[in-house]
Design brief:
This protein has two domains: 253 residues, 3-Layer(aba) Sandwich (Aspartate Aminotransferase, domain 2), CATH 3.40.640; 108 residues, Aspartate Aminotransferase, domain 1 (Alpha-Beta Complex). The chain is 42% helix and 15% strand. Bound molecules: pyridoxal-5'-phosphate. Pyridoxal-5'-phosphate binds next to helix 4. InterPro entries: Aminotransferase_I/II_large, PyrdxlP-dep_Trfase, PyrdxlP-dep_Trfase_major, PyrdxlP-dep_Trfase_small. This is Aminotransferase class I/classII large domain-containing protein. GO terms for molecular function: 2-aminoadipate transaminase activity; pyridoxal phosphate binding.
């Protein structure tokens, strides 16, 4: 362990057999990130936005954009972002409720360090974003408690029961009035879930908010896919919308919406936002990390303020929606035609992912390994998304990276291989 292997790598997925989406010999359907055909658009968009922003800086002559920024994040960026989000969500988003972050991953980490008891509990769904689980591992004094799912969404009756039991079992918790105001958090992806693609229905959203209020728990929503909504009209309301401050039993805010530009612009931009109630915003605004660093990604926030102001992000989101709508429809058409009858999937209406259910006896890890070796197509086995290594008879397909013809070919190969595997190669 006293040597660092610093070999030449180009991107996050480089050198990784499961995730290397750039590998020419394999069609890899694993990764939730855009491919070069989409990323090439960033060059022109960011040039225009940067030029606009530099002209603004010159006009003012103070060059504050190159100074330490304010802890909540550049005012103009939050102002433009609140207008953009209000427009695209079809729900109002207040500038003062936004704290800029370096992306949803940083937002999650910042929340865990700022508002959760150091010996608190993080409730997670049976399957969830696998790297969030790794973020949680960095807080070894916090407990991770798994909540079962039913039909690909969280089982709220089970959640209610588990919260009650866990509070008794693991308390007391080191909360205080100034910062660690929550003893527990439920981490979830209510809209276009990763990996299941599901959306939490409105009646469940209402119930979840009630549960959070009853137990003084915070719900941290990873809202990175909400705007990738493919039917016309506004996307499903984010959970934050249901925690209405006009409600008689409003508790000061128990929901946080953790958003990002990674899926609607570029993962490398590293800019996101935490939309939170005032009691949380005030804690984050006085955080030492945000104060010492002068907010998150201040320079980039200036460029993004211009990008939003010039409506470039709006137009690009429309383009992404058009492209992803076609990709998703193509993959789902193939699945409807060719997926073996003993398997199933639910067709999502947004986001990146399709979650395939295999028969209980079929081991997805084994199938994917075999499929990768013999048919040169890969996806991610379900157990990767499970804290307890379950979901072994599921796998996830992503439509994010490859173009439509490659996706079609890969899905056809995958379905035919799966049929062959179930009939002839399954280990029983
Ligand atoms: C649910 C979820 N949250 C967060 C992220 C990462 O977001 P960011 O790039 O904004 O840190 C991903 C990326 O795959 C994701 O799927």
């Amino acid at each position: 362990m006293d040597k660092v292997n610093d070999r030449y790598l180009r991107h996050l997925f480089d050198g990784d057999l499961i995730f290397n989406v750039y590998e020419k010999n394999i069609i890899n359907l694993s990764v939730g990130a855009p491919g070069p055909d989409l990323l090439q658009n960033c060059e022109e968009m960011l040039l225009k936005a940067t030029q606009h922003r530099m002209e603004e800086e010159k006009k003012e002559g103070m060059y504050y954009l190159f100074q330490y920024g304010i802890t909540a994040g550049l005012w103009e960026c939050r102002d433009e972002l609140s207008k953009f989000l209000s427009r695209r969500y079809g729900d109002s988003v207040a500038r003062e409720n936004l704290i800029l972050s370096y992306g949803a991953t940083h937002g999650l980490h910042l929340l865990l360090t700022s508002i959760l008891a150091p010996n608190g509990i993080i409730f997670v769904e049976e399957v969830t974003y696998m790297i969030a689980l790794r973020v949680f591992e960095q807080f070894p004094f916090m407990k991770i408690v798994v909540v079962p799912m039913k039909n690909d969404i969280v089982d709220l009756n089970a959640l209610d029961k588990i919260i009650c039991e866990s509070k008794k079992k693991y308390g007391p918790f080191h909360t205080n009035n100034d910062s660690k105001i929550f003893w527990s958090a439920f981490y979830t992806i209510p809209t276009y879930h990763n990996p299941t693609g599901s959306v939490l229905p409105p009646e469940c959203c209402k119930k979840l908010v009630e549960i959070a209020r009853n137990y003084s728990m915070v719900v941290i929503c990873d809202d990175v896919y909400n705007l990738l909504h493919y039917p016309s009209g506004p996307p499903p309301h984010r959970l934050f919308h249901y925690d209405n401050k006009e409600d008689v039993n409003y508790q000061g805010g128990n929901v946080i919406s953790n958003g990002s530009l990674s899926k609607i612009l570029s993962p490398a931009i590293r800019l996101g936002w935490i939309e939170c109630p005032p009691r949380v915003a005030n804690i984050l605004r006085t955080s030492g990390v945000m104060s010492s660093g002068g907010g998150a990604n201040h320079y980039v926030s200036g460029v993004i303020a211009s990008l939003l102001h010039l409506n470039i992000q709006d137009k690009y989101l429309d383009l992404l929606i058009e492209i992803y709508t076609k990709r998703l429809a193509t993959v789902c058409d193939v699945l409807k035609r060719l997926l073996p009858k003993c398997c199933s999937f639910y067709e999502p209406s947004g986001g990146y992912f399709i979650w395939i259910h295999l028969p209980p006896a079929c081991d997805a890890s084994d199938f994917i390994k075999w499929c990768q070796e013999t048919h040169k197509v890969a996806a991610i086995p379900g157990s990767r998304f499970s804290q307890e290594g379950k979901a072994n008879n599921n796998f996830r397909i992503s439509i994010a990276f490859h173009q439509i013809d490659i996706l079609k070919k890969a899905t056809e190969i995958l379905c035919i291989a799966l049929d062959d595997y179930i009939k002839n190669h399954m280990k029983i």
